[in-house]
Amino acid sequence: MSKFNKQNRLDEKAISIISDFFMNKHGDLFDLQFHGIKDNTPDTDGFLRLREKNENKVMAGDYLNQVVFFQLKGQEKAIENNTYVCKRQIVEFCKEINLPTILFVVSNIFTGVDNQKEIQIYWYHFSRVNIEVLNEINKSNNKNMILHGLEPLKVGNRDYVDIFYTFIKKLAKKDDFLDLPKELLDLAVNYKNKTLIVASILYLIGKVDKSDRIKVAKLLGFTLKDLNDIIISLSRQKLVYKNKDSVIFKQVQDEFKRDVGLLLLYEAVSKIDLDQLIKVFPEHNRKLHIYGNLSKAGHHPVVAKYFKKEVSSF
Fold first, then answer.
1. Which structural domains are found in the chain, ordered by start?
2. How high is the pLDDT of residue 186?
């Protein structure tokens, strides 16, 4: 006779809760479909297709050709500090799959069994930055992995579906770069990485003049022309203010009201030699500005490790 356990029941309840959320409450925006096979293998549980509702008709609209897959887990206790402990095999699958995949965590299930307002739904995308953080904070031999930075979808009476919809709409777009020959793709990736590093250093420093550009180029091993070309590109994207003497990183927010400079720093900080950056810009006011902006990324393990080292040196 086969058996079921507590986690089986939690996952079943999670299916019911997330189905109600997407299909009943927000069915005009999402089409949620499960694969229909209940198992314990670390693969996708289903997919989510975006819809666009018709403002002039009730319960009608268009399907969008944008799809993401998902893995779903249920948890008895509430999520705290946007953190979830997940089995390594599930994390490794979501890290490696070549499809856009979201992990949903439905939590606070049993305590909220009679009150749907207590139910929590969080989501996590295995982006390149999140994967880098996961690899830094989790030992390779651990059976479970800690996931920081889960995003809320429903917590109590608060519903964040508009933010989630916008994120998925961007995530599920076709990547035109995948069709490029390898040689061109390598060039594109290389330019992207250089741009990320330059933008991040400008964000940390805040303002650079002509003499500073020479220092930055030397620090990164770039030619001054390469550096200036990237700065011109950043200026065209309205990320920096540029005149003939100075370059100033702008305080720009994305559609989710997030600090764009901080997002760029999260992606590039592991590629920046922070010790050398401080040596190149040792002035007191420069160091304060660098430390201040760096502290905003304090949850990144590379930054946390750097500050710990700096504190221990005093």
1. 6-174 (3.40.1350), 178-312 (1.10.10)
2. 81
